Amino acid sequence: MKSSQKNILLLLILAVVAAIGVRIFMANNAAHQVAAPVKVLVAHSDLTIGTLLRQSDLSWKEIPASELPKNAVEQSSDTAKTMSGALLRNAVKEGDPILSTDVISPNAPEFLAAALAPGMRAVSVAITDVSGNAGLIQPGDRVDLLLTQNLRDEKSPAHSVVAETIATDLRVIAVGSSFQRPKEGDSQQANLQARTITFEVTPIAAQAVTVASHLGDLSLALKSFAKTSADGNASAPMQQAQKKWSSSAPSDGPIWAGDISQAVRAEPKEKPAAAPAAPANRAPSATGGSVRVLRGSTEGTATPTAALPLAMPIGNSAPTKLQ
Q: Fewer C-beta within 10 Å: the chain N or C terminus?
């Protein structure tokens, strides 16, 4: 009897110890799970409103799960795959999390209007594989716009073809219908299929680009990232670009070819054809012409010595009597 009681007591003690051990294990495991860090998307540098996000603008940072902000973008989420090419609607400091509410997706209907800086316009131009840099230009890049004209000047072959830069530092909003930078692996193929590029320009530059597209061929020159501003405010660069032609173009009137193209302004104007010379006035003959005289059956000619008067004399002179 005593041995059975001892066994029961021993089992109870073991059960209590096991329960305490399980509880301690679960508590430690829960504490470990709470302390596990989570990787969230943060700004690699200071980002301003209107920035088209590139991979170089984004970084991942580990933070405790207990400090995870609402709407933070975790590395394992599907949202993280669509952040490159999105438009930043709020400024974000370096190292701060980029929230899903801070961006506008490229697929959103309001993306294009939101991507434009205040007072700016969107204008599209046609491109080819060559003029579009072989598909290497992507949304968010900045380019210079070049105009090439064939003047067909047979008298001066050295000046028959001319190229000039009509706008600089234009921000690319879209390539084709895509506002997003293509994923790695299919970027070149996707951009090679594009036949238009859309820029952000000032209102007067939109007119100039449209006129230039009818003057000749437009080409793009890609600018270095090292000199590219990350913000979306393109007003200052565009004002610098317009100094070449805006002084001659009215801000509220039509834009002419000569306003934007120095080559057109330099073309010699055709001189008007000279009027034909008027015939010289011939002095009246002092002797007049010959006169045919008939006297009965006799015919002869007579040459007057002076021109006959064109009118009868006016005044008190007596009329001449006929003999």
A: C
